[in-house]
Structure formats: C-alpha cells, structure tokens
Amino acid sequence: MTPHRSETHRPVARQPIRRPDGDVLGHEYLYRSRSGRTAGVDRWSAARQDAASAAVLRTLYGRRTPCGTGLVFVNVTRAFLTGEHPLPPADHRLVLEVVESVPADAATMAGLARLRDRGYRVALDDWTASPAQRAMLCHADFVKVDCRDLDRLGGAGLHEARACGAQLVAERVADERLQERCVALRFDLLQGYALGRPALIAAAA
Q1: For residue 51, with 0-12 CB atoms within 10 Å meaning exposed, 13-18 middle and 19 or more buried, which class applies?
Q2: Domain named EAL: which ranges (predicted)?
C-alpha cells in the first residue's frame, strides 16, 4: 500500500529521551500537521496511521540518515512489522515504537523476531500490560510507560514490564515532581515537557 500523497509532505517534531542524569539517549520523532501542531494520529484509521508513520520515516531517511548519533524512536503500525510497508535499512539507531493498537497475531510476532534479527530495536508504546503487549514483551528493548498510568500499574506492572530486560521509559513527565517520582521508581529513561518539549525539525521532501 502506498501512503496517501497528501500525508507524505509534513513537518516532523522531535522530543528528547534522557537518562536520569540528563544525558540524551535519543529522540522520538513525531508526526505533525501542516501547521506544525499535534495531529491526534492515535485516533485515526489504520490506513492513515500507516501513512503518518511512512511520512516520518521518509523525512528522516529519504535522503540521508538522521544527524547525530542518538537513537531514533518512530511510531510504527502493524503493517511495518509484517512487511506490508517498507522500513529503512537497519542502522542500529532506529527504534520501532510499536503503537498500543497492534495485535500480537502470528504475523506480528514473526515480524518482530525477523526485524530484531536484522538489527532493528523495538519499543512498546503506552504499556498497560495488555495481553498483546505481554506477548510482545520478549522482543522489546524499551517499554514506554505513560505517567498517567503509574498509579494503576503500580509496582507489579512496572516489574512485569522489566521482566525480559527492557529499559523502562517514563513518558509525559510533565513537571519536576513527576520527574523525581520516576527517578525514585528507577526508570531508566525519561521523556516529557520537564525534559524538553517537541521541536520542529523539517518538512518531508
């Protein structure tokens, strides 16, 4: 499937992902509307989400690899895991951030195993300990936890997310209080307004 042409020329924003000491591990690269604002991609149809992911990847890898040496986190849908849509060559920097709506069916699981063997890294986005996420956990290098879910998950939910050795990333760390809480909970990495807001970098060529 080819992404809709109207979705291929968009600005992209990036937000830093930091270690607790403040060092930057990498960035998440985010789809933006033509005006540069958030677009609410998670509420879109599967086909439009596919197109949004393709547009971000095209911006980052269409003419050159992303500058710098940090990791490159990009949201991807099932179609990229199963090979229906192409991915850039593995460069050991690209982290495929699997959105929470992806089912853990046979094609997805086979795709995750194949991609990791090829050198891609994998992150599970918005960890809620759903059955699908639990099935995919063995393939995850990173597990991202929305700070709004901390109370519901509790210590047991965070412990489970670490069970296969993934690094835990706290998302939506909005202020210093939350940052201190996440450090106390031994998150490996932090992302959110307290660590840096998303900044526009480019428009897709």
Answers
A1: buried
A2: 1-205
Query: All domains of the chain, ordered by start, with CATH?
Result: 5-203 (3.20.20.450)
Residues 6+ apart with CB under 8 A from 82: 107, 108, 110, 111
Q: What is the pTM of this model?
A: 0.89
Q: Which residue has the tokens 């540069």?
A: 36
pLDDT digits (tens, 9 = 90+) for 79-102: 999 999 999 999 889 999 999 999
Reference 100, options 75, 121, 74; nearest CA is 75
* Environment class of 187 (CB within 10 Å of its CB; exposed 0-12, middle 13-18, buried 19+): buried
Structure tokens at 154: 């509790």
Query: Measured between alpha carbons, how far is 26 from 143 in angstroms, rounded to an integer?
Result: 15
